[in-house]
């Protein structure tokens, strides 16, 4: 991180705010902590992985690093959309019990970077379903829209654990017996 970026980040924390990269899926606006964003890329085809969950589209080779790509529309059970010239892959740093790993998320488009005051973040509503809101850090009402702040570690972190685990012991046993 450059010195200027570090000073800007420190100033934001001191002022009780942080920056969020906002993006759209359909008509909704979502946001992730800007410090988690590693790269923004236009859509490009991925290498499919057999037996992966439907929302895990496959992997990309980014400068020698294999990065899993998740379609957030599919993960959120939203209507499918064609990948176009404005479709974006946001490469994010995700932290889980297995450690840090880069993941790409496919979104309809990137909006902008917004300064969010901590005091303006409202808690996710109780929907009597923990799974519906467990990946939401909060909601930020703006004059013309609402930003849903995502907890990327909870949303994607379980996928990191599964991918890092490799083949299960049940899969390894038949291979060992055959040897």
CATH architecture: Beta Barrel
Counted beta strands: 10
CATH class assignment: Mainly Beta
Average of pLDDT: 81
Structural class: alpha+beta
- Spell the H/E element sequence: HEEEEEHEEEHEEHH
Number of helices: 5
CATH superfamily: CheA-289, Domain 4
Shape: globular
Helical content band: 10-25%
Low-confidence stretches: 1-14, 164-179
What this model shows, in words?
This protein is an alpha+beta fold. It has five helices and ten strands; from the N terminus they run αβββββαβββαββαα. The strands form two sheets. It has a five-stranded mixed beta sheet. Strands 3-6-7-5-4 form a five-stranded mixed beta sheet. β4 and β5 form a beta hairpin.
Summarize this structure briefly.
The protein has 179 residues and is an alpha+beta fold. It is built from 5 helices and 10 strands.
Provide tags for this entry.
179 residues; alpha+beta; five-stranded mixed β-sheet; globular; disordered N terminus; disordered C terminus
Task: Describe the SSE topology.
Blueprint: H1 3-14, E1 17-25, E2 28-33, E3 37-42, E4 56-62, E5 65-71, H2 72-75, E6 88-96, E7 99-107, E8 109-117, H3 130-133, E9 136-141, E10 146-150, H4 152-165, H5 169-178
Parallel strand pairs: 2-10, 5-7
Antiparallel strand pairs: 1-2, 1-8, 3-6, 4-5, 6-7, 9-10
